[in-house]
Structures are given as structure tokens and as C-alpha cells.
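User: For a benchmark we're assembling, each entry needs the component sequences followed by a predicted structure for the full assembly. Here are entry 17's components. Please fill in the structure.
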Amino acid sequence: MRSPEDRGLRESAIFDRASIAAIQHAAKTGVYDIRGWGAKRAVPHFDDLLFLGSAISRYPMEGYRERCDTDVTMGEMNAKNPMTLDIPITIAGMSFGALSAQAKEALGRGASAMGTSTTTGDGGMTEEEREHSSKLVYQLLPSRYGMNPDHLRRADAIEVVVSQGAKPGGSGMLLGQKISSRVAEMRTLPEGIDQRSACRHPDWTGPDDLTLKIEELREITDWNVPIHVKVAASRPYYDTKLAVAAGADVVVVDGMQGGTAATQEVFIEHVGIPTLAAIGPAVKALKEMGVHRKVKLIISGGIRTGADVAKALALGADAVAIGTAALIALGDNDPRWAEEYEKIGSAAGYYDDFHEGRDPAGITTQDPKLAARLDPVEAGKRLKNYLQVLTLEAQTIARACGKSHVTHLEPEDLVALTIESAAMTGLPLAGTDWVPGRSSNGWGPSSNGL
Amino acid sequence: METLTETTVDFDLAEQTVRELNHELHAPTATHYRVLNPRGAHSVAAGINDEIDVEIDGDVGYFCAGMHKTGKVTVNGMAGPGVAENMMSGVVHVKGHASQSAAATAHGGLLVVDGNASTRCGISLKGGDIVVKGNIGAMSAFMAQAGRIVVCGDAGEALGDSIFEARLYVRGKVASLGADCIAKEMREEHREELVQLLKDAGMDQEANDDAYVDSFTRYGSARTLYHFNSGE
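Assistant: Structure for entry 17:
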């Protein structure tokens, strides 16, 4: 049978198949769609940038031999025990509850093998996670599920989560299917209920309060560890300034492509700004305050390759965080579970119903049988391999740009491929010196008619 | 653990810093401490993790006795926002009034406020107990998951909004109830629980007065928001 396209039928660009299915689902159920993953729509991203590499005016480093360091240290300004990551890639906060205990263990194993950190997420710290994570960031979230000062004192860093890229101003959910007895106990909730996380912190509001909250956390932990502040990318210039003013050692800016375990689809796709658009304002804020490269900037949301890592660093970030990519490395959406994805109405490569707890790969589930499918040792090795590739790729690019440390990459190493990405990043359009909104130096298309 | 000195150590915040105070309290050399001249300082006695007794003579700022565990902290004055936030165990006693978010997210222990507590008292409570001898402000017990709150006076607007399994006992008027919070039957086990909480707060006379105890109303969750499809 010929396809609709072969028969000359035209699919609407506006009412595409996903839009039609969403309308039909809403009409049938009266309930909005909840899903995991992050924004799936196309927005300007790192693919819209290119590195220039070296030629006569820039001198490269030998690709495989010359030293190109990758370490980054957090908290040197305030913490007695700053945290050094061997690579500029860390694992973003993902909760036990959203993920199986096996998945959390695997994240710890993979990250530790590469000398980097992993992060707890909503719902507290599990022993498996602490045991297998050589560097663990403990999140202080609005819900305070499982918040425990003993865990706080065992953390290598603390992250005050203000908001998340997938849902700036919103809050997380964990539906009843995933509130197992262990999750319920950790979160002090009845088993099987649909749990909503709070969207506001219960004991502070506004930047002045945040200053005092950070001070309290430092007092409780005797000023031992760095304190991060994580904000969704919505007003990154102001939020970065306020976080720094409040005393943060690290600002984490999470773009709209940042993942979630469960949020309303309308939120994921329509609130917040792209990761690419968030870096420039955050860096500008740090520079204006004189703390760029001192207060560290971690960027997250849609990091997939070493090129993405290198581009984020060149734009001014000190490190990146990965969530969705880390889950894929563990085995999420693996084609070997294709038949089972089909059975639950999805497909390998498309699966995003993390909230339902039926993940065939055993990652976003609390079902003991499904979770047992994930071997934490093997999955940890896959994550380690993936992190290694990201690092090697970023180093390769950095060397090609003549840099002996990946964080020496700079905006001058980059150009933009599209007008949108040029405007968002302040980089010139490739082959020109033209940055939208700024005057030309005289050899770009705005002046020479190219 | 080494034996602590059974004497009271004075710590004058006019002379020393909060950081020095907390450093001492986190590795205590004595069992009793008296803090002088707090003058509204923040994070006073935050993060205690030992069986020590700390008495603070004066008013404190934000997050006094934050994340408190096992010991006792007494504030002979007023307490700013977030007193005893995320308390795990032990006792915190405010002899004056407490500002907003008192005992927010407390997982255990007991907070006693002799005066009034402002808005969001017991917000997101996770198992701790609170006894307020005066009134509490609006949005108290918001999303409270577990634990008990006793209010001997009145409660402000939207009490217990989106409450889970926490139990609230209010003697006076409630300005309004929040979403999914309802008045509930006071069964014998609740009465016994209330009497014990009053005794724990040093209110033995009231606890032994049947008419006083009977004048409380219990509030809790109607449990209609526990599942998305049924509640939104």
C-alpha cells in the first residue's frame, strides 16, 4: 500500500501527527498529558554553532599527545573542602523514586570511575548511592522529601534547587505506580498516592532569604562543602546575579531541554528558554560581578556529545551536567527492548512515560522485576565509557583550538550557523563578522554586500 | 564519645561569632550552654547533633535550631523565620513569638511556642510535633505530610491546604480551611494524643482539664487530592 505522501496527501505542518494525537487524547480523557524526558521540539542548540579550529592565526596542539587538562574545582572561595571533578561533566540530580535503586547505583559507579560527581534528586540519599558515588551532591529541594542533616553532613557538595529547566516555576510529580513502600517511607507519604512536589521552598522566599538559607547550610556543615544553586533557564542573567549575591559557590543553569521524570507536556515544551540562550546572560552576570571562573557555572539541558560539552565551555561554562544522556547510556530506550516498548504503546527511541513506572529497561521504575533487569555494574561501565567519549571529544576539539585545558576554550573559537543562534550567543554568523543587533567591523555581509 | 563537662558554658555573641558558637555546639565539650546577646543573629544553634541543652537569652533571627537533632534549645525571646526547620528530634522551645515557617518540614522532635506563630507554621511537616500556645498564621500546615500540630488559640486562613496525613488540633477559630482539609471526628485515640502533646509542652494543668481538652477540634485530610484524575 502506498504511503499517504506517495498518494499526494499533504500532512499539516501545524496539525502534525503528534498534535492531532494530543488533541484526540485530550478530547477522550479530559486529562492533560504528563510525561518525562525534556523538550522535544526543535530549538536553537549547540548544533547551530561550529568551532573554527586552528590555521595560520591559531596554533593547534598535537591531538593525541599533548596535555589537555579537564579538571574543574568547585567551592574554592568558601568551602574548607572544595570538590574537584576530574572531568567537566557531572550527573544531574535524578531521584531514587523516579529511578530504580539499580539505576542510581549505576550512575554512581559510572561517574566515580571517571572521577566526577553524581547528584541525589528529590527524595533523599540512598545508601547504595552514597556507597557507589565517590563525589555526591546532595540536593535541597522545595519538597524536602527525605531531607536529613546526617545526609547533608555526608555530602561532598550541597545543591539548593530553586527550579528545573523542564518546569521553571513548576514542581515534580511521582505518580502512585512508583510510590513503592520504600519510596513512600523515604518521602513520608502514603504508599500508592500521586505525589506532587512543592514548587516553592517552605522556609525562604526571595534572594535575601536565600542568602540566609545558604548561610544556615554552611553553618550546619561547618563550612566544609561547596554550595550550588540550581535555577531553570528563564531569566538567567538576574538569577545568576542573585545566586552569586546570595553566596553560591556554583550556579547551575538548566535549559528547557533539561529532563524530568514527570511533568505536564505543556510545561516541558512551553516554559523556559533554550540552553543555548541561557549561557550568555549567565556568563555576563558572572563577569559583571567579577567572579567568572571563580563562582563556577554548570550548564545542563540537551548535552549529548563532546562537541556540546566543548561549546558550552567555550561560551563560558565551567562544566556541564547530563541527565537524559546518562540514562540513555545506562540503557534507556535501548532497541533490544523494542518489542516491550511497543507493548506499552511506545517505541525504542521515543519512550518518555517515565512516570508510569513500566520502563522495560529497568531504569525509570520501582517495579522490582523490571528494575532487576538493569545490572548496575554493566550499566555503570556503559556510563563510564560514554563519559570517557564525551571527555575525549571535548579534548580533541580543545587541542584543535590550541588549548591546554578544556575550560580555556573561548567564544572566539566559535561561530554561529544561524541568525537565531548568533543573536542568542553573541557569536558572529559563520563567514561574517556580523552579530545580530551589533554593528559590523566592516567585512561582514552587513557592510560588503556578501 | 568523651564525657562532657556537666557545667554550663556561656557564649557571648557580642564577643564571639555564630560560626564559633556552632563549631563548639557541633563538637560539644559541655552539656549545657547559655548564649548571650544573640541580638537577632541568624542560624544560632543550627545543626545540633548531640544531647546538649542550649539556652539563648534574647531574640534570634532566621533558622535558629535549624535541622536540630536530639538536644534541647530554649529561646528566651522571639524567633525569626524557620525556627527548628527540618528538625529531626529533640525539643525546641520558643518562649516568645515565632515568625513564619516555624518547624517547616520537621521530621521529628517537638517545637513549643509559648506565644503566637506566624504564617506557614508547620508547612510541609513530615512527622514532627508543634504546640503553639497562642495563634498561628495563614497557610499553616500547607502540604503537611505527617506529625501533629496543636494550636491553643486561633488558626489563620487556608489551614492545612493540600494536607496529607498530618493531624491538626485547634482550640479556637479557624479563619478558613485550605483545599482538601476538613474537620474530623475526635476519637479517643486522638484525645489521648492531644493530652500527651499538651503535657509534653508543659501544659499539665490544661491537659488534665477535660473541658479544655474537649474544646479542641481535629482537622485532617479529606484525601480527595491523593490522585490526579479524581482531584484536578
